[in-house]
Amino acid sequence: MILVTGATGTVGRHVVTGLVAGSHAVRVLVRDPKRPSASGPRVRTVVGDFADPAGLAEAMAGVRAALLITADPLRPEHDAHLVESARVAGVRHLVKLSALAVTEPGADDLITRWQREAEERIRASGIAWTFLRPRSFMSNTLSWARSVREEGVVRAPHATAANATVDPRDVADAAVLALTEPGHERCAHALTGPEALTPVQQTEILSEVQGRALRFEEISREDHLRQLCTRYPRPIADALAEGADRQLSGAKAHRDDTLPRLLGRPARTYRQWATDHQAAFRP
Ligand SMILES: NC(=O)c1ccc[n+]([C@@H]2O[C@H](COP(=O)([O-])OP(=O)(O)OC[C@H]3O[C@@H](n4cnc5c(N)ncnc54)[C@H](OP(=O)(O)O)[C@@H]3O)[C@@H](O)[C@H]2O)c1
User: Fold this and answer.
1) Residue 83 in contact with ligand 1 by CB distance below 6 A
2) I need a surface site. Which of 81, 151, 237, 272 has the fewest CB within 10 A?
């Protein structure tokens, strides 16, 4: 039995789809059973919350491998509860969705520190582990969708700083392999896309895919932070702005060949991602 947490989220729902396609028995942990998550004949749902260790014990019972996807850097106890319940239940393998920034010596923002600590906790648990360390998700550009739809404009900071963003579906495909194949224990997989693109280049690709001219407007760091504060608590907005700043020094432009090696095919391009998600950007 394989447990998927974060199963309604960006990566987790594709992981469930991939496991179902491979005829694996899957348990999904969701906090709200009304939220859509992938389903299938061998998918069972357990309702629980990372804040509630009792519910997690039920979710972990009889599980061989679990995918840990947590999303709140202000709640490190969520990560601690998951690892402790896995240890008590005798789970043999933890696959953790982490972040590539943990390897950057200059990265010391709240989110990166949280991910490093979560990895450390898993290492200390004695359970076999695999860390998936993706670069920024291509899907983050969905935050541009509204202004693209309504005004034909992308507003973003750091216009010409490149990022080797990765398609979250590729991250999910790597997670499926780590959960189902031997040989990923004690591996930390760096997962990047096949090209490092700047926001201006991403806007050009979106324009071509949409078949209409989109405008790019560079915004200041202050305006970016203001935007982030409308969506996240201040400490997380600050961490995201710090992360964006690191793009300026080229820290996020490196391309890694792990994904094509693992998947046996090229990693998806931003053009592919934009083509598959063009409905979100259409007026
Ligand atoms: N975005 C990026 O560029 C990027 C890059 C590298 C690494 N990462 C890492 O990726 C992870 C996030 O993955 P994602 O984007 O796939 O997730 P996501 O889309 O943000 O979804 C979060 C998932 O976690 C569930 N969840 C949140 N709080 C919960 C709780 N208290 N109890 C139970 N479930 C809870 C959510 O369930 P509900 O449906 O109930 O909300 C949802 O399924 C983070 O660790 C992040 O640091 C992201």
Assistant:
1) no
2) 151
